[in-house]
Amino acid sequence: MTESHDSHCPYCALQCAMTLTPTDASSGTPPIDIAAPAGARRLPLTVAGRDFPTNRGGLCKKGWTSAELLDVDDRVTSPLVRQPDGSFAPASWETVLDRIADTVRDSRDRFGADSVGVFGGGGLTNEKAYQLGKFARIALGTSRIDYNGRFCMSSAAAAGNRAFGLDRGLPFPVEDLDGASTILMLGSNVAATMPPFIGHLQGARGDRGLIVVDPRRSETAKLTDEGQGVHLAPAPGTDLIVLLGLTHIVITEGLADLDYLAARTTGFDAVRRSANAWWPERVQQVTGVPVAQLREVSRRLADGRGTYILTGRGVEQHVDGTDTATAAINLALVLGLVGKPGSGYGTLTGQGNGQGGREHGQKSDQLPGYRMITDPAARAHVAGVWGVDPSIIPGPGVPAVALLDELGRPGGIRCLFVHGSNVVVSAPDVDAVRAGLRALDLLVVSDFVLSETARLADIVLPVTQWAEEEGTMTSLEGRVIRRRRAIEAPGEARSELWIMRELAERLGAPGTWSTEPAEVFDELARASAGGKADYSGLSHALLDTGIAAHWPFPPGSEGTPRMFGERFAHPDGLARMVAVSPRVREPLGQHGGELTLVTGRLLEHYQSGAQTRRVPELLGARPHVTAQLHPSTAARLGIAEGDAIEVANVRGLVRARAEVTTGIRLDTVFLPFHFAGEQCANLLTERAVDPISSMPEFKRTLVTVTRADAT
Ligand code: SF4
Known about the structure:
The chain is of the alpha/beta class and about 700 residues long. The chain folds into four domains: about 5-70, ADC-like domains (N-terminal domain of TfIIb, Single Sheet), CATH 2.20.25; about 80-150 and about 355-515, Rossmann fold (3-Layer(aba) Sandwich); about 155-345, Dimethylsulfoxide Reductase, domain 2, CATH 3.40.228.10; about 590-710, Barwin-like endoglucanases (Beta Barrel), CATH 2.40.40. It is built from 23 helices and 27 strands. Iron/sulfur cluster (SF4) binds near residues 12 and 194.
């Protein structure tokens, strides 16, 4: 009899529930009654969707094919060391760990502790994310740690913290959306990124309608064809102005909830003044969204029958992403939606542990429990849990783009550890990142495959992956869930917890370094106690009882599925409304022959594609990058469907195939960011960042497009 294991998908933040059943090696047949196609590979386990509030048994094609990840051709099963000829050769763990520790010691002695850096990931379990922050601060002694969530959730997190005093993506359970009458979704293509989520939009789709803001007619925007749906397609980078325009109409038409504003917020007067400048006709002129649509949407949002406003990366991945998310929050507060039953504001976290990944100390300025590293009380509390003097915890480091800028520079980082991230595909201006990585004295990449970043490493450390390890993740609704081991890892693959313990001991680090996820979780819970993201009442054993564990979850509590019902997390309990103004006032694509590049996602791929490009069914469906162009734009440029084209600017050139579609604006070109090499969209993006969140600009880059044979 083969035992099944309840776990969750290895990909996105919806964290769909799955049942994992190891293939019964002794019987030679799969343990469930599914006839495999002739010649199909025999995978180590089978995956079935499991009933759970977020996915109700559903999975997308990434989830259904996730067992393929456990059997990829280039799985790293032993430590690899780069040879003088550039190839990799296997080596023993003892050899590589000793060499890493020696090189780190030497670098710290010669160049200081901040010559060593750590780049983490939003897909790491809570336990690994926590341990990585601790490892950086007290084993390596460096302030230089940040992670790829800086490319993903940082603007929404900054806006949430500023407005509410706390950042939890959805401050309500996903199922609450089922009862919505109207949902305004800005910059999120859930129909492609997390298809089971669409089930929660049915109420709005059948009632007053789904309202989608996206410059593209995305798969999600197409849902607005039904019923009373509305698709607003503003010029890229003008979402903030659309939000100011909606806020202006709500206020001037007397639709604001003045009682709520007086009782629960501060700053409304300043917000009203800032919105004054954005009357509908002016908004139409800048964004291209018709006045009639703006008025219709404003009235519908205010109809009082259950309205939710949701934002995603489309509006957040900008140099003014924090202010744009703030404008969405301001609109929600003006309408009195936040903290009331049956309405609300939330942001849709993308990465699998995008929520937990930002709570436990991977960020350059934060300690576990979502505490600021500059706060003396926070430092003292965490130091007590770590068993160290607070003075040895370094101060704040630098956020991801600045950290990558320091690679190989004089006085910068000389040794880098990369965990759970593929930066030479996912970071902006990847050619510059690649050059930085090549200039390092030591690049150590922990991964289970030879990702594009791992291929540049001096040492690759083979690690366990989702179905081979125990741990926890925190979903987009702040629910802490259990990841369970269903099979053993192959070869010499080890958990990052084991790697960090081995290196910490070699480096003479203080404190204890458990390799047991349940023990690390208990330590994480103690470190989080009293912090914003408080896990102190939770344990693996309690989670194994199947409770719904939304944080904050202090001891004796039953968790917090819904937040802000009575008060916000600022000391006075009030939400802060912050007046914001656009810095971007015109569509980029109106200059000469240039177009505005927007990057985004496809149904078949996830993040940098390091995983999904190794799954035959997913790669077969989307084998290469395609660039979406409007038919009129394509005709003007002499481009036809399927043509080889070049998308270029001063930073680089991407080779793609043309996908001609009316679903995109005349002034815009869309590239998915899941592809590597000369197909990598981030060859073109720039390192300009939001001054508050340090989020790079991924959605508004000037490019030219030409047919490949025309150059
Ligand atoms: Fe996995 Fe996300 Fe797809 Fe669910 S929606 S199966 S969590 S990738």
